[in-house]
Amino acid sequence: MNELEWIPATDGDETEYLEIAFGGDGNVYIRENHKPEKVVVTTETKWDAFVLGVKAGEFDHFVEGIE
Q1: In terms of Cα–Cα distance, which of 34, 38, 41 is closest to 10?
Q2: CA 64, CA 6: separation in Å to the nearest integer?
Q3: N or C: where does the chain have the smaller number of CB atoms within 10 Å of the terminal CB?
Q4: Alpha carbon of 6 to those of 20, 45, 67: distances in Å?
């Protein structure tokens, strides 16, 4: 996994955030920047479905009241 190009999922000054990497093997790798040894792996198909769900508001109830 050292050859993966990790993309930070932040555009601010956060000290803790997620990082995403797309492997050439059809998998998507997700980790927290402050715990890089713990990696979650999913497929690109499942990642695409998740992103579409976020865009459609399917997970908005998880962040109600958070600014």
Answers
A1: 34
A2: 29
A3: C
A4: 5, 19, 26
Q: Where are the domains of the chain?
A: 6-62
Whole-model pTM: value is 0.84
Average pLDDT over residues 18-41: 97
Q: State the number of CA atoms in the 13 A half-sphere of 50 facing the CB.
A: 8
Task: Report DSSP letters for 36-55, one per residue.
Answer: EEEEEEEEHHHHHHHHHHHH
More reliable by pLDDT, 1 or 44 = 44
Q: Is 28 exposed, middle or buried (0-12, 13-18, 19+ CB in 10 A)?
A: buried
Structure-token pair, residue 12: 């601010």
